[in-house]
Design a protein that fits this description.
Four Helix Bundle (Hemerythrin (Met), subunit A), elongated, 184 residues, 5 helices, mainly alpha
């Protein structure tokens, strides 16, 4: 975690003391929550393909089982994600320098979009779990259409999340570069 202590500082001798370093410690803690999400994701990244294959095979018990596992995983990850968002908000409420405030805004936006994507996936999995019926062509088609539509929305949200995350990383690199230049 880069500390943004050297750029566009707020506060100082007259104003409230800069709390950027304190905020960065809160973000280090939030990153632990985010690592828990990454572990859950890595453990379950094959689920989409398994679900797709189960749907193609019209294997109702497998679809229901995989969907239930997906829902539970997303529920667990969402708890960690919301905890991380709360910590980012806590850090944003401190008197921090402008660069770090912008970094935290971008980080918050990225995580928020990712959580929205998770919710779309959770809703898609719930609908499949509760309604997948290969013997009823109309219901099957409706459920699959909803799943596809939600997958498109998931992709859009994940792309937005990646964009915000990339902007945050670029900002961190730029601030770090400026700090090094100032030290020389």
């Amino acid at each position: 975690m880069l500390t943004f202590t050297g750029c566009k500082s707020t506060g100082g001798l007259i104003g409230e003391a800069d709390q950027t370093i304190e905020a960065s410690k809160i973000i280090e803690d939030a990153n632990k929550d985010l690592k828990q999400i990454k572990v859950l994701y890595e453990k379950n990244e094959t689920k989409r393909e398994e679900l797709k294959n189960a749907m193609i095979a019209d294997d109702v018990p497998a679809v229901k089982k995989i969907c239930e596992e997906v829902v539970q995983t997303i529920n667990d990850g969402t708890v960690s994600g919301k905890t991380a968002l709360d910590k980012i908000d806590q850090a944003r409420d401190l008197n921090i320098n402008e660069d770090y405030a912008e970094y935290l805004r971008l980080k918050w936006e990225a995580l928020n979009r990712q959580l929205q994507a998770f919710e779309e996936y959770r809703q898609a999995a719930r609908k499949l779990r509760d309604n997948f019926d290969p013997n009823n062509a109309d219901v099957r088609a409706a459920v699959i259409a909803d799943f596809r539509q939600r997958n498109e929305e998931i992709q859009k949200l994940q792309e937005k999340a990646r964009d915000f995350s990339s902007q945050a990383v670029d900002l961190a690199k730029e601030v770090h570069r400026k700090q090094k230049e100032q030290e020389q």
